[in-house]
Write a structure and sequence with these properties.
- The protein has about 280 residues and is mostly helical.
- The chain has eleven helices and no strands.
Length: about 280
């Protein structure tokens, strides 16, 4: 928010997603070739070396003096409790974060099944696995560039949430039903498109709605819901895939995502926009 301001925040988030997903397109394709040529160890060394550029970029960042927030002396537990109380008392933030926790835990984690799909369902090698990842990256990149190409109203942001969740769920269900690699690549592209449309829009709405005093704590909760739920979801989907197969696990993942989309659609139908312009979700 301090770097670009509220007006350009949605485009900045979308551009960040486009850079991330451009790497997802290029990375698997390069890694798939390197894996067979030089082995796993060299791939890990290349990955580690790539972080040098990130460290240099962080060192070169200069924020305006006004962007530095005052230091908080409250104990960690007290600050955490106040942040949770604030978010719980704000229905838009609470619902966005709870929905993200469900989708992040059970929907987004379908990607841990990709090695099983590549080897056992599509009977392919590292190149096929790389194509599955790259296809999702292509869809994600297209979605991110589309989001960054214009500004959206609050109503359009809410519509993007629903479109993203629905497209993501349909893509994962299509992957679960696919038995040919070509069809799976199309479904992966659709899933990637919907995933970024949903996650980037969620991030944008959270940043626009939160009070500046609670921005850091709210983004900490965003990280918990987006990343912290991943281990539990991955474990459950992995156990399900071991017992019933990867397609069944992906079916559950897609069904949870579509159920979340249905819930969101019902909430949006009852939406009332206060006169002050604050959205409720």
């Amino acid at each position: 928010m301090q770097m670009v301001g509220p007006e350009d925040l949605p485009s900045a988030i979308a551009l960040n997603s486009s850079i991330f997903n451009a790497a997802r397109v290029i990375g698997p394709a390069v890694a798939g070739s390197l894996l067979g040529a030089v082995g796993e160890a060299a791939c890990y060394f290349c990955n580690a070396a790539s972080y040098v550029a990130v460290l240099v970029a962080l060192l070169r960042m200069r924020l305006p003096a006004a962007a530095h927030a005052p230091r908080h002396t409250a104990p960690l537990a007290s600050g955490l409790r106040s942040g949770v109380r604030y978010v719980w008392g704000e229905p838009p933030l609470r619902n966005l974060l709870l929905l993200l926790g469900i989708v992040g835990g059970f929907g987004l984690q379908y990607q841990v099944l990709m090695p099983v799909f590549a080897r056992k369902v599509f009977v392919t090698d590292a190149r096929g696995y790389g194509l599955l990842l790259a296809a999702a990256g292509v869809g994600s990149l297209a979605s991110a560039l589309r989001l960054a190409s214009r500004r959206y109203s609050r109503e359009e942001h809410r519509r993007n949430l629903l479109i993203g969740l629905t497209a993501f769920g349909i893509g994962v269900l299509g992957l679960a039903a696919s038995r040919q690699l070509a069809a799976a690549l199309v479904c992966q592209a659709l899933a990637g498109f919907g995933m970024i449309r949903y996650t980037a829009t969620t991030n944008t709405l959270l940043q626009l709605l939160v009070d500046d005093r609670y921005r850091g704590r709210m983004m900490g909760l965003h990280t918990v819901m987006f990343i912290g739920t991943a281990p539990a979801g991955s474990l459950l989907l992995g156990a399900l895939a071991e017992r019933m197969g990867a397609p069944t696990a992906a079916l559950v993942s897609g069904a949870v995502t579509l159920a979340a989309a249905v819930w969101l659609g019902l909430r949006l139908r009852r939406l009332r926009v206060p006169a002050a312009g604050r959205a409720t979700t």
